[in-house]
Amino acid sequence: MRRFFLIIVAILVLVLAFIPLFRQQNPARQQESGNKITIVYDNKALSGFKGSWGFAALVKFKNYTILFDTGSDGEILLSNMNKLGIDPKSIQYIFLSHIHGDHTGGLWAILKENSNVTVFLPSIFPDGFKEKVRSFGAKVVEIYEPKEILEDIYTTGVMFPVGEQALILKTSKGLVVVVGCSHPGIVKIVERAENITGENAYLVVGGFHLFGAPEREIRKIGTSLKRLGVQKIMPCHCTGSKAEDIFAEEFGTDYIECGTGKTISW
Ligand SMILES: [Zn+2]
Ligand SMILES: [Zn+2]
After folding, report:
1. Torsion angle in degrees (nearest 10) through CA of 125, 126, 130, 131
2. Which of 87, 125, 206, 247 is buried deepest, with most CB atoms within 10 A?
3. Contact (Cβ atoms closer than 8 angstroms) between residue 107 and residue 96
4. How far is the CA of 98 from the centre of ligand 1 (A)?
5. Do the beta carbons of residue 174 and residue 200 sit within 8 Å?
6. 19: CA distance to ligand 2 center in Å?
7. 223-259 burial code (b ≥16 CB/10 A, e <16)
């Protein structure tokens, strides 16, 4: 009887000693660290990188590696990625915002390096385009409606004109919205992102498409974004230098200058 009792005690001690091993240490905090967006293609570039008309960004979120758009020239895209130490084979997903060549031109060069990817594209893309993607062996997921495409990652769904989708990350600080050219309007995109998720936007990154827009309109957009709760912005690509200057003034230290080679984390 006494021996039986000792065995029970020994088992209890062992179980208690191993409990901490099974308990995950602060998983939320662990997942948030390492989340970042790196600009791999933009009109502007940090020294050592190639600047070219177009946009692409590498999104690292949770355990996902997503290439958002692909710029216009595959060689330039691969060269910039190489400089940043990004292996094309590490890309799991490619998210194409819209059909324009300055966002899709680099796709084929990436697929040549790594066809083991899933490509999220607007369903309104021509069949020939989708077929070409599949011919590399890549998987095509057609998007039309807003939806959660990966855990805590959403698409706005296709918005018009042009037929463009934006990528939404649900982070602990709020939404991070990545936009291609914002043809539907940056404010409309952010509003939609908030409606879909029920959360406020925190950071908006990408092309705001405000070339030639009058100052009054640009200031109004800045005010609207702030009203929507946007705290930080990183306007890239087709935003236009005048709009960039105005946003820099309006957002102060929460304005982040874009350019190939730049990284933003939260
Ligand atoms: Zn465009
Ligand atoms: Zn564009």
Report:
1. 180
2. 206
3. yes
4. 7
5. yes
6. 53
7. ebbeebebbbbbbbbbbbeebbebbbebbeeebbebb
Going from N- to C-terminal start, the domains of the chain cover 32-265
DSSP assignment string, 46-61: -TTS---SS-EEEEEE
Name the nearest CA neighbour of 156 among 126, 187, 125: 187
Helix axes 186-197 and 215-227, enclosed angle (nearest 10): 10
* Pair of tokens at residue 144: 């039309």
Per DSSP, 159 falls in state: B
Give the number of the ligand closest to the Cα of residue 208: 2
Q: What's the pLDDT tens digit per position in 53-101?
A: 999 999 999 999 999 999 999 999 999 999 999 999 999 999 999 999 9
Task: Indicate the class that CATH gives domain 32-265.
Answer: alpha beta
CA 182 to chain centre: 14
Which pair of structure tokens corresponds to residue 119?
Answer: 């490509």
Q: Which two tokens stand for residue 125?
A: 């893309």
The residue-averaged pLDDT of 105-124 equals 98
Q: Which ligand is nearest to the CA of 54?
A: 2
